[in-house]
Amino acid sequence: MVQGAHLLCRPTSHPGDDLVALVAGTMSAFGRIDILVCNAAPNPYYGPLSGIQDEQFRKVLDNNILANHWLIQLVSPQMIERRAGSIIIISSIGGLHGSAVLGAYAISKAADFQLARNLAVEFGTHNVRVNCLAPGLVKTDFARALWDNPQTLDRALSKTPLGRIGQPEDIAGAAVFLASDEASYVTGQVLVVDGGATIA
């Protein structure tokens, strides 16, 4: 059984103070953090990389990579001390292939894969696991522009063997697995949850 707090974070554009306050508040309420889910996904720009502004690029990298790094550094010492903990970074299948219109986002999500691998190596001797989830198209407000457009949705479904887009519960179930004792021998991995889209 997993006890203590399960912390879900969506870092903002100014994550430093917010993350410190989030961790402090969680510790005050629960006393410890057993499971950390880093779930950041801003994308202020849609188009080729040649047109992205530095400020937009930095926002994507700061929120999708650096904020995850900061939050993990705030939480991991207590996990290392207890020799127990599971860290899950929500990435994306966007990090597995190129994109003509979501380049910065894809770059940041690919970097999250490597962040998980590096930290899995660093934390492994302390029995702290670090993994990534890579969802495909999921019916969330963030992805509304993709699934709310019939043409875009049809194109996505035509390439998805299961013939549907994901639901938030699909991703939650995978996260529960990675957080649980059933995944106690899984670390540094990327679990793709995309209805088969990346293999079709």
SSE blueprint:
Layout: E1 5-9, H1 15-30, E2 33-38, H2 54-82, E3 85-90, H3 103-123, E4 128-135, H4 144-147, H5 150-158, H6 168-179, E5 190-193
Parallel strand pairs: 1-2, 2-3, 3-4, 4-5
Helix pairs in contact: 1-2, 2-3
Characterization of this structure:
The protein is α/β, with parallel strands linked by helices and 200 residues long. It has one domain (5-193): 3-Layer(aba) Sandwich (Rossmann fold). It contains 6 helices and 5 strands, in the order E-H-E-H-E-H-E-H-H-H-E. The chain has helices at residues 15-30, 54-82, 103-123, 144-147, 150-158, 168-179; strands spanning 5-9, 33-38, 85-90, 128-135, 190-193. Strands 1-2-3-4-5 form a 5-stranded parallel beta sheet, sandwiched between helices. Helix 2 (54-82) links the parallel strand 2 (33-38) and strand 3 (85-90). Helix 1 packs parallel to helix 2 (54-82) and helix 2 runs parallel beside helix 3 (103-123). The termini are far apart. Mean pLDDT is 91; it is low at 9-15.
What is the CATH C-level name? Alpha Beta
And the CATH topology?
Rossmann fold
Straight-line N-to-C gap: 37 Å
Which regions have little confidence, pLDDT < 50, spanning 5+ residues? Answer: 9-15
Helix-strand makeup class: alpha/beta
Strand order of the largest sheet: 1-2-3-4-5
Major sheet: 5 strands, parallel
Report the order of strands and helices: EHEHEHEHHHE
Please give the CATH architecture.
3-Layer(aba) Sandwich
The shape, in one word, is globular
Task: Give the count of structural domains.
Answer: 1
